[in-house]
Amino acid sequence: MTYDRAIKYIHSIPKFSRVLGNDLLRVLLKKLGDPHKKLKFIHVGGTNGKGSTATMISEILQSAGYKTGLFTSPFLVRFNERIRINGEPIGDGELAEIVTYIKEISEKYDVEVSEFAFITAVAMLYFLRESCDIVVLEVGLGGRLDATNVIEKSEVTVLTSIGLDHCQYLGGTLDSISREKLGIVKRGSPLVLYPKQDDIVFKNAKDICIKLNSELIIPELPTGYDRNSRSFTYKDEKYTLAMNGEFQAVNAVTAIETAITLSKNSYDININHIKHGLSRARINGRLERIGNVLIDGAHNPQAVGALLDELEGLREPIHFVTAVMDDKDHAEITSLISQFCEKHNSEVTVTQLDMPRCLSSNKLAAEFTRRGIAAKTTESPAAALDKLKNFDGTICVCGSLYLAGEIKKLLT
Known about the structure:
Helix content: 40-55%
Oligomer: single chain
Strand content: 15-25%
């Protein structure tokens, strides 16, 4: 199977299996030699900041000399980004070979799993074949029933900021969503919890950690963040980030406490490894600037709010380019952006992506119109960029990771 055929095959698999849970994935992994039982993991869940925090942890481990696998989702430009070792995406040939092999095993034993579960199996087998010392494993959706939760133990469990998202699958309250996401905590495994949460999240985390005899670690908040140098102070130590955004400093202290926890459990990690890792950790599509275009994958109200807080510091005109998936809270997203536009006299161009889940540009424009913002409409991201090619200010792309990826492709 060629690389292109492998990618086409992956995307042909139904996104959700007909049977809930990971029983089928466990069967498939057993036929593959149970690679997940021969690897060590740091399991990262949450609503926002998972990818950034996972990347920070991965860079810290690499700085300490560990061969580190990193599994994230979704990809921004190319599928291979989801499966990396020491920052390098899986090669086209290796991906095609492993997909071909797992497809044959799946068909031979009649084990049909969901698309994400299949990709998880690909990553597990690749990380084992390449003899990774440790794998930073990012949850796809939720936690308890997520395919990544097929692992039986983790060195540390990490939960980032938890908010309302994927409510159709996880429930419509922070109580139900946090319980689902806390479902990845393993008995006796320490839990590092992002320090800015709703009270119900802290309560549920304490309850589950008591039940599972797991240590609960809640970092202190960082202080003294400097926007220009991207530096902050944590427990009397100064750190500098490669990534933009004050919210990344809070993700960073979560990564710092994860590294400290590992260092207390036989991992050779020191403060210099942590500082070096944070200074190198970058992730595409998170406050990423290309020329005068600022790309951010914020796709739920919590993430959009954090983005808008960052934009408050800009002293130049801002023009938003946005597209939103139909299953996201587009009413609240447009409300937040509209309030910012009204306050700063900013403008909006809405567009849409060639995918069934995407809300049409006309419907999205109507959401802005209801809030007093006369949004312009375009038929594609390329058309939106073309219309704004002479804009003298910052073009802020947000609303969807898929849109962020499409814009990045166009610009690079």
